[in-house]
């Protein structure tokens, strides 16, 4: 019988895995045939999140030149490099363009079809447009993958989960708010992929509380303004009259930092420096368990500071008061953050040129405004300052930090469970919206269709309404009959609505303290509570402890996702090849 491989999830991760199977099969697969079954109700390539059938108003969050599905020589992997075009090369776009998601879906479909064409003769791919419900089978035998609407399971020698973003059950607070909404005729929209949310209940002219100020909020803002017929004339928004009035806040109380709007010139910081493979090995060797803030964050902070100051001293020497060689030596010897601050104060005259990660992460800490109107002016000034800085090459030390963040994330993937704070911090600094989206926020604010609530936003349900408040503006609150949780669901295994993952969890698959699926960092095999890797089940993606920085990889940055895909593909091919040899020898 031909070997059977089941891949659950045919979006970017499943497509990338298929590309790596095609690249490695000529070397590793000695079998005469192989059937690969792709399970996904959405079209292969884009999957659910990046499918072509969504609003053309929704954009990619990265420049087209920063999106690739193909490996290069910077990826530390055992398999062969198979070069291919970035999104902008494939589509013939200017590299600085923020392409819409429909175009990205077409790119992903092309990558998928190219991977199919590059598979060796005898390897066939079958797409099943269904949902996978559960997996059964012994550790040492064939697996059964049960599909929705199909009475008999698919038999699989190996199963790989590449599920992407997941729907989740509400947490306790969200469930209480949803129940209150049902009882009082209010609207509560839970965390979701915004393009799939039914926004029709958000009525024109009515206030809507929005909790979350990241990318899900940007999508919501677009769909409720331009998506309802409004338009921009320069820096002015011309409403259609069908827009609700949004009141947005979050833990930080500010939008994510804008995408940097210029390219790199000159020498890149030599990364990794303080958080590289050797440092990660030392962390992994600790037997008392790792605490991110205590053990890992000091190395992250040192690495990001090094990237920042390397760029400042090599590209903007006129703003420094010490030779780089002297600064670098003293920086390396500094034993704690206080020493680094003292060194920076002596070597960098302007405080605006010094890196203060805490201030970046919490720009409204301790800040108070006397009125709601004063805060609107203050936050508009914050956004304008961020836009100006992120588009000014004289502040290119920020781009150094961005490269440092990418390097750090590539190393931290090997540690597995780093907790949710780090991913949120990374996204806030490195994965914010395109500059034009922030300019649209400013226009909507001036038009009275977007109000800012503040940091540490709280939402209560009382007197038949939702009420939002923030310590940023003491004494101010805003009422509404609608609340939107503008963020993706947390990718926890225990609360996932996906029945397959729930069944795996119930059957003993291990999770981290933060609820992510535990996997073997070597090849992605799913671990049980005793730390044993399952010989026939693998998992890759944001719901695992080996989650990577984003859905797509920036060219020439080492690509942790590429490295993971390659390792899993090689492990799978080697297993299937050896199994077929054994079968033929019987």
TrEMBL record:
Residues 6-165 form the FAD-dependent urate hydroxylase HpyO/Asp monooxygenase CreE-like FAD/NAD(P)-binding domain. It comes from the Bacteria. Pfam families: NAD_binding_9 (PF13454). Transmembrane segments: none annotated. This is Adenylate cyclase. It comes from Streptomyces roseochromogenus subsp. oscitans DS 12.976.
């Amino acid at each position: 019988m031909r070997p059977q491989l089941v891949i659950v999830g045919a979006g970017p991760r499943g497509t990338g895995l298929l590309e790596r199977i095609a690249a490695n099969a000529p070397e590793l697969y000695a079998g005469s045939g192989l059937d690969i079954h792709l399970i996904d109700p959405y079209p292969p390539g884009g999957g659910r999140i990046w499918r072509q059938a969504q609003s053309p108003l929704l954009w990619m969050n990265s420049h087209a030149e920063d999106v690739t599905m193909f490996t290069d020589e910077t990826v530390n992997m055992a398999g062969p490099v198979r070069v291919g075009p970035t999104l902008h090369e494939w589509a013939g776009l200017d590299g600085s363009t923020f392409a819409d998601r429909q175009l990205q879906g077409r790119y992903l479909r092309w990558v998928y079809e190219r991977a199919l064409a590059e598979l060796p003769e005898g390897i066939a791919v079958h797409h099943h447009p269904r949902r996978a419900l559960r997996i059964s089978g012994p550790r040492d035998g064939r697996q059964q993958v049960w599909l929705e609407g199909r009475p008999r399971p698919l038999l699989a020698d190996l199963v790989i989960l590449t599920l992407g973003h997941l729907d989740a059950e509400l947490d306790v607070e969200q469930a209480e708010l949803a129940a209150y909404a049902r009882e009082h005729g209010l609207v509560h929209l839970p965390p979701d992929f915004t393009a799939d949310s039914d926004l029709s209940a958000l009525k024109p002219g009515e206030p809507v509380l929005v909790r979350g100020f990241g990318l899900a909020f940007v999508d919501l803002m677009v769909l409720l303004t331009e998506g309802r017929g409004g338009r921009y004339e320069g820096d002015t928004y011309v409403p259609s009259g069908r827009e609700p009035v949004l009141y947005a806040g979050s833990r930080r109380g500010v939008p994510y930092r804008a995408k940097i709007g210029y390219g790199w010139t000159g020498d890149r910081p030599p990364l990794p420096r303080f958080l590289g493979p050797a440092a990660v090995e030392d962390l992994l060797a600790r037997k008392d368990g790792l605490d991110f803030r205590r053990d890992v964050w000091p190395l992250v902070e040192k690495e990001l500071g090094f990237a920042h100051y390397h760029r400042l001293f090599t590209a903007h020497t006129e703003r420094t008061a010490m030779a780089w060689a002297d600064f670098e030596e003293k920086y390396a010897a500094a034993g704690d953050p206080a020493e680094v601050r003292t060194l920076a104060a002596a070597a960098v005259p302007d405080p605006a040129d010094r890196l203060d990660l805490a201030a970046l992460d919490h720009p409204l800490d301790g800040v108070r405004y006397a009125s709601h109107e004063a805060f609107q002016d203050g936050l508009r000034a914050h956004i304008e300052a961020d836009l100006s800085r992120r588009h000014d090459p004289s502040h290119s030390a920020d781009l150094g930090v961005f490269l440092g963040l990418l390097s750090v994330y590539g190393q931290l993937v090997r540690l597995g469970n780093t907790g949710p704070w780090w991913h949120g911090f990374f996204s806030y600094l490195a994965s914010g919206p395109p500059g034009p989206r922030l300019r649209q926020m400013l226009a909507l604010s001036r038009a009275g269709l977007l109000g800012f609530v503040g940091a540490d936003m709280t939402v209560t349900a009382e007197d038949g309404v939702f009420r939002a408040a923030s310590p940023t503006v003491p004494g101010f609150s805003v009422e509404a009959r609608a609340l939107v949780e503008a963020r993706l669901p947390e990718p926890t295994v225990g609360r996932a609505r996906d029945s397959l993952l729930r069944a795996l969890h119930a059957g003993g698959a291990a999770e981290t303290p933060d609820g992510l699926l535990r996997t073997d960092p070597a090849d992605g095999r799913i671990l049980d509570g005793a730390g044993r890797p399952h010989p026939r089940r693998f998992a890759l993606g944001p719901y695992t402890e080996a989650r990577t920085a984003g859905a797509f990889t920036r060219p020439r940055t080492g690509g942790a996702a590429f490295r993971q895909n390659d390792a899993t593909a090689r492990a799978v091919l080697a297993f299937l090849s050896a199994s077929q040899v054994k079968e033929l020898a019987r």
